[in-house]
Amino acid sequence: AGRSPSGAPLLTASQSLEGAGGRRSGYITIGYRGSYTMGREAQADAKFRRVARITVCGKTALAKEVFGETLNESRDPDRPPERYTARYYLKFNFLEQAFDRLSEAGFRMAACSSTGTCAFGPEQGGPADDKIWTSYTEYVFCRD
Fold this sequence. Notes:
alpha+beta; single chain
């Protein structure tokens, strides 16, 4: 085993990621873009479109541990396990499924954030009475 410039022993990728009980500690962020339309006077029957893609940001080893074969790595292949990436996404489109996998792996939600903007309305060539809104939402999960 090597030593750092300060004289401390260097840790392997698996050692540096392990927390209590031999499980890797860290953070995984789940993000998605969504859109919906609302008719006149913000009617209660807003039409939501399905989630197109769920993105995953975090250390490669953690993401692979939690999501396994459902993790699409095609946008960042051969990423070292101890490195972070924000280029993975899931092969399924159900947030509940992602949340269940994170919970089963011992993660808890630490924070969430969402933004929404009016993408276009009638004045920009959209539907006559509807405004189309887009949103971006992120959920941060952690495991100690």
